[in-house]
What we know:
The protein starts with 12 loop residues before the first helix and ends with a strand. The chain is 38% helix and 20% strand. With 418 residues, it is α+β, with helices and mostly antiparallel strands. β10 (273-279) and β11 (288-292) form a beta hairpin.
Amino acid sequence: MTQGVRGTRDFYPEDMRVRNWLFEKFHSAARSHGFEEYDAPVLETEELYTRKSGEEITQQLYNFEDKGGRKVALRPEMTPSLARMVMARSGALALPIKWYSIPQCWRYERTQRGRGREHYQWNVDIWGAGGIEADAEIVSVLVHFFRSVGLSSEDLVIRVSSRKVLEEVLGSLGVTGGAFSETCIIVDKMDKLPAEAIEAQLTELGLGPDAISTIQSVLGIKDMGDLEGALGSTSEAVSELGSMFSLFESYGIGDWVELDASVVRGLAYYTGPVFEAHDRAGELRAVCGGGRYDRLIGTLGGKDLPATGFGFGDMVVMELLRDKGLVPDVPHGAQDVVFGMGAGLRGAAMEVASAIRSGGRSADLVLEDKKMKWVFKHAERLGAERLVMVMPDEWSRGAVKIKHLGSGEESEVPFDQL
C-alpha cells in the first residue's frame, strides 16, 4: 500500500518546492504579458470531450457515471472547460480576453518518460482577437518563460506552421471535411511512427500513392521560399506565416522559431497557425504545443469566436531542466529558526516566534528539547538565514541571541526590537 496509482505522482516537500518554483515562472511569464488567471472544476460532463469523435483524447478519458447516473470525466485538457466558461458569458465578456491557468489533467495512456496519467498543464489563451498578432504574443509568452528558467535558443526550437498548409494541399487533392480531420490526426504521428505505417493509414483513408507523396513532400518543407514554391505566391498559408515570422523578429525572438510544415497538431479544432517547442537534441517528446482554434465554440453549440493559445505540461520541461542542470536547490523557506534553551523557556520561544511572524518573517519553532548541535544542523538543512536563540541570561535581560548563519556573526537583540 505504499505505491500510488500507476501513472500518478507524490510530491514530497522537496518536490513541492521545485514545483512551486516552476509554477511561479509560469505565473510570471503570463502576468508579464497581461494575462489573468482563471480555474474550472477538474470534473466535467463527458459530452464536453466526446462531441468531436475520432480524436485520440476521447479514448483516454477517465470517465464514469456518478451516483445520479450522469456521465462525467476528469478533464484531460483545459481548453473545452475554457470554451464552456466563455460560452456561459457570451456577449458579457470584454474582448479580447487574455487568460491563463495551471490545471491538473488526467489521461489514461501508456506511461513513459515525460508523460504520466496525470500532469499539470500551463494553459495560456487569447479569445476575441482574430489577427496573427495574438498568435505571435502567445509565442512571446513561451520564450519569456524559457529565458526565465535559464534555457536558450540553443536548447530549444519552436517549430511553426499553419493548418492552412495541409488544408491547401489536401484541398488540391480533393480531401475535405471529416477526411481532412482524420488526415491531420495521422500526419501528427509522422515523427512517432514508421513511414510505412503512416502510408498504410493514409491509404486506408482512400489516398493514392501520388497524393501521399505530395503530402509528404510539402510537409517536409522547412524554408519559406520552398513553401511558396509548393503552394504558390497567392497562398494564404504562405502570406500568414511570412507575416508571423516578421512579428517574431519584432519581438526579438527570431532565433527561437523555425518553419516546419510537418507541424499540424492532431486535435481537429485547430484552424490556423500551429506550433510545438522541442529540445534541439531531439531526445524528448514535444515540450509544449498550441495554435489557433477559431471554430471550437461552434462545435460545442455556441457562436464561434477567434481564439489562440497553448498547453504546456510540467513533466517534459522538468526532464529538460534536469538534463541541463537548471533545476535549482530551492530552500525550505523558513527565514528564521527559533530555539528555546530548556523546557522552562518554551513559552518565551513561542512569544519570540509569534513576534517574528507578526513582523512578516517566516519562523520555524523547535518544538522539543534538542541539543544545540542538532539545532544548527536543522537550521542549515532548512536554509534559514538566522538562528534566534532564547537563552536564560539574555532572556532575563529581555533580549535574545541571534546568529546570522551566512556570516557566523552573533548579536544580542532586545525582544521589543525583533
